[in-house]
Amino acid sequence: MMSNSYYFRKIHSLLGVIPVGFFLLEHLLTNYEATKGPEAFLDQINWLNDLPLRLLLEIVGIWLPLLYHAVYGLYVAYQSRNNVSSYGYFRNTMFMLQRVTGVLTFLFIVWHLFETRVQVALGNVAHEALGNTMHDIATNPVIFTLYLVGIVSATFHFTNGLWSFLVSWGITIGPRAQRFSTIITMGLFVLMTVMFIMSLTAFTGTEFSVPVEAHTGK
Hints:
single chain; mainly alpha; 11 helices; 77% helix; 0% strand; globular
C-alpha cells in the first residue's frame, strides 16, 4: 500500500471534490429549500427521487466514492503526524483541523444517514415525512447542537480539502495563488455553513411538524 500511496492519495483527493464534494453541494441546495417551506422541500425531494437510475447513480456516484474517501481518509488521519505544537504555522493548524473534521464528518454522516436514509429504506419513514423527521431532530436542543458541530466539520473539511486539491493537482502554484485560494475556499466555507445552518433552523418551524398535506389540503 505504501508503494502506491501517491496514487491512493491522488484518488482520495479527487473523490473528495468529485463527486463527494458535488454531493455535499447538492445536499446543501436540497436542504436550503426548507427555508421556502415544506412544499418546496418536498418538491426537491420528489425531483431527486424521480431521477432515472437513481439507485445506481447513488451507489456509483456517491456511496462507493464516499466509502473510499472515508476509509482512506481515516487511514491517513491515523498515520499523520501533526506538528502544530512544534511550529504553529497556519497551514499546519489547517492540516490538523482537516484530520479532526474528517473524523467528525465521518461520524456525523453515518449518524445522519441512519436517522434519515436508513429509516426510509427500512420503511419507518416515508420520503414525504423527511421534513417531519428533520423537525424532530432540529427541535431537540442537544441534537441541534451536535448537528451544528457536524455541519461546521463537513463544510470546513470540504472547503479546506478543496484548497489541498488545488495544490496537489498543480492548479494553484506558488504562494500568491495559494493565498488567493485560501481566501476563496474560506469564503466558501462561511457561505456554505451559513446556508446549512439556515436550513437546519428552518426545520424548527411549526409548519414542518405536520404532514405537507395539512398545508396543501390534499
